[in-house]
DNA sequence: AATGATGATTAGCG
DNA sequence: CGCTAATCATCATT
């Protein structure tokens, strides 16, 4: 079997040499035309076997040399060049000057906008413009296969994904600096790869150009054809460039969306955390500015970050203050209602407890709207025993807090009283609060001396 | 879905 | 840098 195959193979090769015979062309005859045919047949045989011949370097050089020295060579060469020129030109005309790829342009724009490509503060410029510069001093023999580049791109993707995974591991806390670092990393990778890409492209081009120039001595290759070849190579490489840019864009987009997601997603703190924070806030109401250590402590207790604690206190302070006006309004409304109810149903006004509580707080604590707001707004806060205790600390004078008899009688006037009363009785004494001396700081804006204070009041025309 | 509560972000101040 | 005030985006409740 094996032998037979080989035989047949050999036969096939033989067939090449006898191809004419197979087509019934007589190999020999008296006819002069037969002789010509014989000659042609020989030539054809030579041509057909030429592909089977392997040339070693020396041989090739030798043949090239003899060819170059052939007397007919220049004439033949010019004719061939002419013919080729024509065909090349016709090809060229058909695919003239295509516009730059819009997709590539978009990618470029995005990369520049994201600061990945283009002029950059940190240097490492992406010598992109050099792409058009024809030959560089690269070594011609370091041709790089496209497949190599495919593999490299896969590698790049891998890197991105690893980075992004790492990024994701960071989980809840993603900082601006992280984002910038990652972006810088992407930029770095991109620019390195782009540099490599460019180098490879140039090297490959140079290699091909040199090869063609070399061959143009033995083969009819016009400069224009070389040019065209370069164009083709560029086009092929552009596909790779596109992939690189696309991957980079993708990576940036993912990074971006992750970052924004993390930034925007809001998670409520646990009830317990809110509890702890409120406790601290209300027990330091006179100076609700935790020190760095206190913040750390709170952060630990609440399982949140220090910056979250800071955010929380910032929000709390501002909202606490802000709500005083509203709280008053609401409390007054409520008070009015309660008063009406009380008037209608003397002695049975237990429903009005809430409102009564606010008013008591505001009028008796000497904290103006502050105390009032606390009761009104400290919803979750009120639910805890600790909080109530704290509250008492804040408003020690609300001994009447649970005194129903008082608010019924004071409901109406208390609103105005509240304003007056605290002017006379400078804010509470907190028995266990060492920070009372710092009173002014936070609550100052509630002081009648503060214009802001009156602003708040004025927002409440119903009194 | 409309609304309020709430954590995060931002500009601007000292 | 830490703070306030305004604002955004989402959660939670109705």
TrEMBL record:
A cellular-component GO term for this protein: nucleus
Residue ranges, compositional bias (Low complexity): 126-138
Annotated signal peptide: none
All copies of domain Homeobox, residue ranges: 260-323
Residue ranges of every copy of the PBC domain listed in the record: 35-261
Pfam families, per the entry: Homeobox_KN, PBC
Compartments (UniProt record): Nucleus
GO molecular function: DNA binding; DNA-binding transcription factor activity, RNA polymerase II-specific
Region (Disordered): 116-143, 398-463
Protein name, UniProt field: PBX1
Annotated organism of origin: Mytilus coruscus
